[in-house]
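Quiz preparation item.
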C-alpha cells in the first residue's frame, strides 16, 4: 500500500501542486473541504482513504442543506396531486368530463409540452453563455455545478431583461438549464457586484442540484396553483433551499443579491441589508402572516433575516424572532471638535462615515 508521502510525491510529479484537490481533480481550494488552511491532511489524503464527506448545513462550508420543511410539504403536495389524478380518472371513467378533469388527465402531456416549448425558446432566442459569451457568468455556472458536486454542468442562457431582475432554472428530458435576465449582469452599473451575480447563479443551479426542475417532481406538484397555502409554502421552502445553495456558492454575494431584489440594479447601493433584515421580527399582524403564507418566495425581510441568521432554517409561517434589532453602530470617538476647524462630513463624530 502506498504511503502518504509516496502518493504526495507522485502527485507532485504529475503536475499536481500542493493545492491539487483530489475531490475536484483541479488545483485550488474547494470549500467542500472546509475553511482554507483547514489542514493539508484533507487536501492530500492518499487514494485509499475515502475523501472527506462534508455534512450538509447552513454555513458557507460543507454542502448546502435542504430546507427542513421541503420534503414534508412535498409529500403532502404529491399525495394531494395523486389523489387529484385518481379522482379525475374516476370522473373520466363514469363519463363526467369537465375542464378540470381534462386538465388533470392531460397533465403529463401539458407539462411535457410546456417544458419543451420553454427550452426551445431559450435555444432559439437566448444568448448561450460560453467561454466567449458572458464568460463571467459561464464560469460561475461551471463553478456552482462543481461546488454542488453535480455530474453535468447545466446549460446557461442570457435573455433580454428590459429592466427586470429575474432568473430561473428548468429542464426538458435530461437537459437542465438556467436562464439569467441580462440586467443581472449590470448590477451596480460600472461598480459591478459579481458576488451578487454568483449568489443568484448559485441559487438557480441549486434548484437543479436539489431536483426542483425534474419532470416527475413537477408532475407530482401539478396541483400547486390550486393549493394556495400548502402549494406556495412548498415553493417557498424550495426557494430557501436554493438560497442555501446560493449562500454556499458565494455567501458574500447574499446581501448584494437581496439589495438588488429590493432596490434594483443601480439603487441597490441605497439599501441597507441589515436595516431591512432587522424589520423582519418587528412587522407583525394577521396580514403580514397572510402575505407571507400566500407568497411563492419568502418575503424579502424574512429572506434577508434567514441569510443573515445561519443558525436555523428560514421561517416558513411565523415571523423570525430573535434579539431586538441591534442598535446602530456607534461611531468611533473622534478628536474633540475645535471651533473654527469644522471637520468635513465623514470625520464629524456622531455621523456615519460617508
Ligand atoms: Zn428560486
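Solution:
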Amino acid at each position: 500500500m502506498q504511503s502518504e508521502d509516496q502518493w504526495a510525491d507522485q502527485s507532485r510529479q504529475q503536475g499536481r501542486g500542493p493545492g491539487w484537490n483530489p475531490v475536484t481533480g483541479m488545483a485550488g481550494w474547494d470549500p467542500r473541504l472546509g475553511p482554507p488552511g483547514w489542514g493539508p491532511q484533507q487536501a492530500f489524503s492518499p487514494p485509499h482513504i475515502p475523501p472527506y464527506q462534508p455534512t450538509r448545513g447552513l454555513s458557507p462550508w460543507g454542502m448546502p442543506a435542504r430546507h427542513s420543511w421541503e420534503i414534508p410539504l412535498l409529500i403532502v403536495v404529491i399525495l394531494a396531486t395523486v389523489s387529484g389524478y385518481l379522482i379525475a380518472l374516476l370522473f373520466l371513467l363514469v363519463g363526467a368530463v369537465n375542464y378540470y378533469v381534462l386538465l388533470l388527465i392531460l397533465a403529463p402531456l401539458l407539462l411535457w409540452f410546456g417544458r419543451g416549448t420553454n427550452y426551445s425558446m431559450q435555444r432559439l432566442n437566448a444568448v448561450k453563455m460560453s467561454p466567449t459569451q458572458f464568460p463571467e457568468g459561464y464560469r460561475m455556472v461551471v463553478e456552482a455545478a462543481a461546488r454542488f458536486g453535480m455530474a453535468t454542468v447545466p446549460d446557461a442562457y442570457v435573455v433580454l431583461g428590459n429592466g427586470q431582475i429575474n432568473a430561473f432554472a428548468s429542464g426538458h428530458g435530461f437537459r437542465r438549464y438556467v436562464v439569467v435576465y441580462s440586467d443581472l449582469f449590470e448590477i451596480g452599473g460600472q461598480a459591478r457586484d459579481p458576488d451578487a451575480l454568483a449568489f443568484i447563479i448559485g441559487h438557480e443551479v441549486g434548484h437543479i442540484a436539489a431536483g426542483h426542475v425534474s419532470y416527475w417532481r413537477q408532475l407530482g406538484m401539478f396541483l400547486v396553483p390550486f393549493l394556495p397555502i400548502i402549494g406556495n409554502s412548498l415553493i417557498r421552502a424550495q426557494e430557501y433551499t436554493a438560497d442555501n445553495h446560493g449562500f454556499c456558492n458565494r455567501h458574500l454575494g447574499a446581501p448584494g443579491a437581496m439589495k438588488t431584489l429590493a432596490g434594483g440594479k443601480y439603487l441597490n447601493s441605497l439599501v441597507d441589508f441589515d436595516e431591512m433584515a432587522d424589520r423582519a421580527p418587528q412587522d407583525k399582524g394577521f396580514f403580514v402572516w397572510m402575505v407571507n403564507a400566500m407568497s411563492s418566495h419568502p418575503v424579502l425581510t424574512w429572506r434577508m433575516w434567514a441569510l443573515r441568521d445561519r443558525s436555523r432554517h428560514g421561517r416558513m409561517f411565523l415571523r423570525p424572532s430573535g434579539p431586538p434589532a441591534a442598535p446602530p453602530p456607534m461611531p468611533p470617538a473622534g478628536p474633540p471638535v475645535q471651533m473654527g476647524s469644522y471637520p468635513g462630513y465623514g470625520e464629524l463624530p456622531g455621523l456615519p462615515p460617508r
